[in-house]
Amino acid sequence: MATKAYTAPLPTQAKVVDLNVQLMCPDCKVVPPNISEEFSSGDLVCADCGLVLGDRIVDTRSEWRTFANDEGDDPSRVGSAANPLLNGPQLDTVISQKDGGSGAARELNRTHGRVTAVKGERNLLQAYKDISAMCEAIGLPKLIADIAKQLFKRVEDDKLLRGKPNESIIAACIFIACRQEGVPRTFKEICTLTQVPKKEIGRCFKVLNEAFQETKVQTMTSEDLMARFCANLRLPMEVQKAAVELTKKAKELGTLAGKSPVSIAAACIYMACNLYQQQRTTRDISMVCGVSEVTIKNAYKHLYNERTKLVDDRITTKLIEGLPAP
């Protein structure tokens, strides 16, 4: 019996689907589309009808311009932004520490860091971190921190304070930066912040102030501290202005000659508060200004004795006589 040959059915031809995305002008609908990229304006325009199909396109062509001052390659267009506070090319390669938990990548990262570390850069980075943390702790703006970092780098480059601990240099740099930008802080505030003795900060400050002649700071006055102290005590503007006027007249008359600016500011604030019926005790002012209550009372005693000469004529005699006796 002859067997009939079995013929398998031919597979049906699969339907081909075009998955390509084709950009077409919705007005012209010309195939192929005539679309031009105008990188100068960042627009995608139909060349036939002028319809703008897209904006803010990215120029993917090669960059032939250079912004370097001298001839040669332009390093500003390669890698991340350069940090002027660090030395070296700053284009290092970093090995990732993630390798699935074997630990080999972490060891490679440490070894690579030791080999490629620039001499002195670790010390600078740690100092910059400390300066940023200290400035943030007392609410100083980023500008003050940047100026303090620049001063610290100049000290390191010029070897001005060789042998001094970094904590003392950082304290002096923050102190000078505050003075330069008109937001002075007292020695006691910087001592509390950095845990560096006052004498040590004073020595470093004296050396740096003489070395940096172009950025030499002036002596701190009571008027420089008045706005911050009054703001912390939540006093109205009229009390602050009265305290500033008292300070100026006391200097003209020599009433508080030999007193520190902080003591003068605290005593004038206390007297202005009593003139304008603002209930602030010597303890409140002492906690804000950082001087003892005895110091405030001793300075206020001199102001009280000269009250008729110091107080403005606009203040009535009744308020002047109502000042508390020291």
TrEMBL record:
According to its UniProt entry, the protein's GO biological process terms are: RNA polymerase II preinitiation complex assembly
- Which one of the record's GO molecular function terms can you name? RNA polymerase II general transcription initiation factor activity
Q: Where in the cell is it found?
A: Nucleus
Q: What is this protein called?
A: Transcription initiation factor IIB
Matching CDD domains, A to Z? CYCLIN_TFIIB_rpt1, CYCLIN_TFIIB_rpt2
* PANTHER family reported in the protein's UniProt record: TRANSCRIPTION INITIATION FACTOR IIB, TRANSCRIPTION INITIATION FACTOR IIB-RELATED
InterPro entries (alphabetical): Cyclin-like_dom, Cyclin-like_sf, TFIIB, TFIIB_CS, TFIIB_cyclin, Znf_TFIIB
**What family is this?**
Belongs to the TFIIB family.
Segment forming the signal sequence: none
Cellular component (GO) terms are: nucleus; transcription preinitiation complex
Query: Do you know which SUPFAM superfamilies this protein is assigned to?
Result: Cyclin-like, Zinc beta-ribbon
Share what the entry says about its subunit structure, partners included: Associates with TFIID-IIA (DA complex) to form TFIID-IIA-IIB (DAB-complex) which is then recognized by polymerase II.
Keyword annotations of the record: Metal-binding, Nucleus, Repeat, Transcription, Transcription regulation, Zinc, Zinc-finger
**TFIIB-type domain: which residues?**
21-54
The UniProt entry, under PROSITE patterns, shows: TFIIB (PS00782), ZF_TFIIB (PS51134)
Q: Which SMART domains match?
A: CYCLIN
Transcription recorded as keyword: yes
Primary role: General factor that plays a major role in the activation of eukaryotic genes transcribed by RNA polymerase II.
Work out whether the entry's keyword set contains Mitochondrion. Answer: no
Q: In which broad location class does this protein mainly occur, judging by the first location in its UniProt entry?
A: nucleus
Task: List where the protein spans the membrane.
Answer: none
